[in-house]
Amino acid sequence: MEPDVLEWRVRMACFLAVFAAVAILEAVFPRRRRTQPKTGRWVSNLAMIGLGNLLTRAASPLVPAGIAAVAARHGWGLLPALDLSPGAGVLLSVIALDGVIYLQHVLTHALPSLWRLHMVHHADLDLDCTTGVRFHPVEIFLSAGLKSAAVAALGAPVTAVVLFEVVLNGCSVFNHANLKLPRMVDRILRLVLVTPDMHRVHHSVIIRETHSNFGFCLSWWDRLFGTYKAQPEKGHDGMTLGLSQFRDPTRLGLGNLLVLPITGDPGRQPINRH
């Protein structure tokens, strides 16, 4: 089986399992009361990931697992030169790729052109498991290109790339969840992983909070680079989610979201204006 086909099947199976589990937990243990109807948001948010995957699959050379297979055949990258054990190579690859995603996330807030794409994600007026896949198709496409370049530079094995994609998708669904974890569980988990309460701060309408907690999987990057914020200033129940310039839900349907990077007001973002 081709690596890109294997990656797609494994990712889809794992995504559906994690998504279903998190959606059920959200319904049983909600963290915040919804402000918008669920159905319309879910249709728009899930359609975005579908369109993004179609765009990326149409450009098969950008599929990271396929690039990993090519890199392995030609001996590209840093890891083959280090002659690590297979297990160490997989672990180091997953950690390094997570660091790349952290850097990518910071750049989407720092560069005006990328922020216009990324504000589609931040314009969600509620936060739940579907927000974790609500990215503009062009941003999904560009992210696949960056991950592919990182995979080639590292010489990451196919196994590591597929594992990382599964972990990244699962963590994105989990840390965007409207899920109330016991305080002690949250405190322990966030020593390593990004939890829903940790990432929710990043979706605050307050700009200085929007520019914090960029991590998707490992919480180490925010602590290491000084972008970690433990709690929102107004508390999780009192905070306002989204962006101040996009408060009308009737203008945040699928069609509006697709053209938002062109038609929308970027507001007082990005980081480099502060």
Q: How would you sum up this structure, described in words?
A:
The chain crosses the membrane at residues 12-29, 50-72, 84-103. The protein has 274 residues and is mainly alpha-helical. The protein has one domain (3-263). The chain contains 14 helices and no strands. It has helices at residues 3-28, 38-58, 64-74, 78-82, 86-110, 112-122, 137-154, 158-175, 183-189, 196-200, 207-210, 220-224, 235-238, 254-263. Helix 1 packs parallel to helix 8 (158-175) and helix 6 packs antiparallel against helix 14 (254-263). The longest helix is centred in the N-terminal third of the chain and has 26 residues, at 3-28. The radius of gyration is 18 Å and the shape is globular. The model has no long low-confidence stretch (mean pLDDT 92).
